[in-house]
Amino acid sequence: YVIVGHSERRQLFGETDAMVAAKAAAAIAGGLRPIVCVGEPREVREHGGADDYVVGQLKASLANVSPPESLVIGYEPVWAIGTGIAATPDAAQAMSQVIRRELGIIYGPEAASRVPIVYGGSVNPANIASFAEQPDVDGGLVGGASLKPDDFVRIVETVARLKAT
User: Fold this and answer.
1) CB atoms near residue 22 (< 10 Å)
2) Cα separation of 97 and 134, whole Å?
3) CA dist 55 → 41, 60, 164 (Å)
4) CA 84 – CA 147 distance, rounded (Å)
5) How far, in Å, CA of 21 to CA of 5, rounded?
6) Has residue 81 got a pLDDT over 90?
7) Are 84 and 127 in contact (CB under 8 A)?
8) In the structure, what pLDDT confidence band is assigned to residue 121 with cuts at 50, 70 and 90?
9) Cis bond leading into 34, ω under 30°?
């Protein structure tokens, strides 16, 4: 697995959606599985444009990227990364549903159903269950909590337990 399109790379290094698409295609060609990150900044969410923003990022970041079975999509609302403020589980589900619907347009509904969508943005042992219980959230993209072994193990065990049913 390799993360491409993380918001910090986009913001700090000016990575464009076209660059993300090229990296994702190269990762697949090299036998890696890209986790393609998308997510909106706070001001976009506050002005009601989150869905359009994320769909635009997704479409451009997946331009000519196939096969879809090689992908993982990471939904990381930019305003939640490293802030300790997570999106609500309902908001994560709603955006994951938007992402899955767009994947269906790009790759077809059957292929879209097989692309994992993971939520990232201040995931921790206390909140991961509420995200993993959502039907379109297939797991977590864990940041800071991965640096704490006990927390990370609890996150993995929680997701494994919930998604095994």
Assistant:
1) 17
2) 10
3) 14, 9, 29
4) 15
5) 9
6) no
7) no
8) confident
9) no
- By C-alpha distance, which of 153, 159, 157, 87 is closest to 122? 87
- If we measure between CA atoms, which residue out of 85, 84, 100, 83 comes closest to residue 134? 100
Note the pTM of the prediction, 2 decimals. 0.94
Q: What order of strands is seen across the sheet that includes strand 139-140?
A: 2-4, 34-38, 72-75, 117-119, 139-140
Alpha carbons 113 and 115: distance in angstroms, whole number = 6
Which residue is it, tokens 């969410």? 45
- 48 class by beta-carbon count within 10 Å (0-12 exposed, 13-18 middle, 19+ buried): exposed
- pLDDT confidence of residue 148: 96
Task: Return d(Cα 64, Cα 1) in angstroms, integer.
Answer: 19
Residue 161 identity (one-letter amino acid): R
Which residues are paired to 3 by β-bridges?
Answer: 35
- Residue 116 CA to residue 137 CA, distance in Å, equals 8
What residues act catalytically? 6, 76
Counting every residue, how long is the chain? 165
